Amino acid sequence: MGDLNRLKKMATCSLEELREMIGDRPRHDLPLAEQNILYDRLHQTSGKLKLPVIVPTLRVTVTDKKTNQVVYDSGERPSYSTTRNWWNWMTSRWNKFTGSATTWGDGYLSIKKQTGETKYMSNSFTYYNRDGKMYGYGAGNGSVSNGIIIGRSSQAEAFSDYIIVSMVGAGSGSGQLAYGSCTPSNEFTDATIPIRKAKYDRAFSNLSASAVHVREAALYARYTNNVKIRYTGICMIRDKFSTVVSVGVSQVLRLSYYFQMNYPSGV
Amino acid sequence: MSDIREEHKFLTGYLETPSFNIKLKYRVTHKGKVLVEASAPAHSPTLNLYQSWFALVAERNLGDSGGFGASQLAVKDRGGTVRYNNSYGPHSYRVLNKPGLVTCGIAVGGGDTTYSFYDNKLASQFAHGSNTGQLYYHLAGVGDTCVPTWVSGSRVMRWEHKRDFTNLSSNAVVVKEAGLFRSLRYYSSWYWALLMMRDVISAPVTVPAAGLFHIEYLLETPTWPT
């Protein structure tokens, strides 16, 4: 069966046929086009059942500052490496957040910081956003404790990831990149689908004298608990890139994470 | 619909995407005898649920002032007021659990207006009380009594929202609809009462005088990844 026929079939076949086509391959082993079809089908079932899902996607670009030319663009693709923190965050947002200070595992809606500490609340999950900004994924210039973080490890993703494996340091020295601010912005909707998307964006500039190779990215969150203690560095997502992304001298790496929610059709 | 549910369950598990399956269960008892018992998948979340969940997960303010619709990140409260605030974001659902509360937890009514994604209230919610056409609302069952349960065999997290209603009047009450209200909390002490889902019961349920109506919304995550 040609690729095109396979894709067409995958888009319309029954669940039983879909299971057969996927076999025992994990989702990240599927070609990107097949992954996209599966996510499309997920959004469709979500819409028909009115059971919302929020799907993260990632886009990676490299731009040469001198020429302003884009030298690499991954395109927007599924970010399929959500962690236990992400699941706990998502589900606890529905109701109570429970856990154990020492347990970060099945049955506990706790979070594990990049430091390895496990935190939980017995009551309210977060406090209010005092400045009206999105506290969750923002970070200032140079901050490596929150927002989008990058690294050089090619270690496979795991549900139990809670830290970037080999972080690229922030700075202008060899092997470092200058971290810009991580800005939650550009929420937008498309009324024809309809969808809602929130975007989290960060630029990394190579101010050193040699190329820097990036192989992984993570999205760290922070939140303020019910007694106003703020926790940072909660790894929600860690993605290993399918290819090494080289950031040459004077080039800028830009990572954009999106959260997408589709509304039921016809609303 | 069951095929779609199976596919949704499979895809959320395979793609490791958190979601919920929702089931509605109810039962009428009178003098210890079960008169009616039924369960069915619930597929009636509202725009309020979509908007508030997205705002909570993505850390967005419900800050759009243009009305109540998919393109506007705002919610509509039980009283019909479109709520938005661009200075403060919502941060959690309020924990409430007391009898007589008609603005939080499960509520029931006698209206059978077709469900709409834009519903913000029940079509005709029963008041709390003991007069004709009223029901006594017991504990809301949302909050401290609703700690999620980990089901180790199927590796899912489950919430069981439950509520009892007693007919203390001398006449039967016919239940035709049910809904789940959540109290969304933002800033430090401000709340909006939001209808998160509404179901029109396919076969109206008669609760006789002195009868007990028990209802549950069961929410269950997909299979937890390993």
What do you see in this structure?
The complex is a heterodimer of chains A (267) and B (226). Chain A is an alpha+beta fold and 267 residues long. Chain A has one domain. Chain A has helices at 3-12, 15-22, 32-49, 84-92; strands at 55-64, 69-73, 77-78, 111-112, 118-119, 147-151, 178-179, 183-190, 195-205, 212-224, 230-247, 251-262. In chain A, the strands form three sheets. In chain A, strands 1, 2, 3, 7, 8, 9 and 12 form a seven-stranded antiparallel sheet that branches. A three-stranded antiparallel sheet of chain A has the order 6-10-11. Chain A is globular and about 55 Å long. Helix content of chain B is 11%, strand content 39%. In chain B, a hairpin with a 2-residue loop joins β1 and β2 (33-41). The longest helix of chain B is centred in the first third of the chain and has 13 residues, at 2-14. Chain B starts with a helix and ends in a 6-residue tail after the last strand. The mean pLDDT of chain B is 88. The interface between A and B is large, with 65 and 67 residues.
- How many E strands of chain B? 12
Low-confidence stretches of chain B: none
N-to-C terminal Cα separation of chain B, in Å?
A: 28 Å
Tell me the count of domains of chain A. Answer: 1
Q: Which stretches of chain A are low in confidence, meaning pLDDT under 50 for 5 or more residues running?
A: 123-134
Average pLDDT for all residues of chain B: 88
Total beta strands of chain A: 12
- Distance from N terminus to C terminus of chain A (CA atoms, Å) equals 38 Å
Structural class of chain A: alpha+beta
Beta-strand share of residues of chain A: 25-35%
List the total number of helices of chain B: 2
Order of helices and strands of chain B: HEEHEEEEEEEEEE
Number of domains of chain B: 1
Structural class of chain B: mainly beta
Radius of gyration of chain B, in Å, reads 18 Å
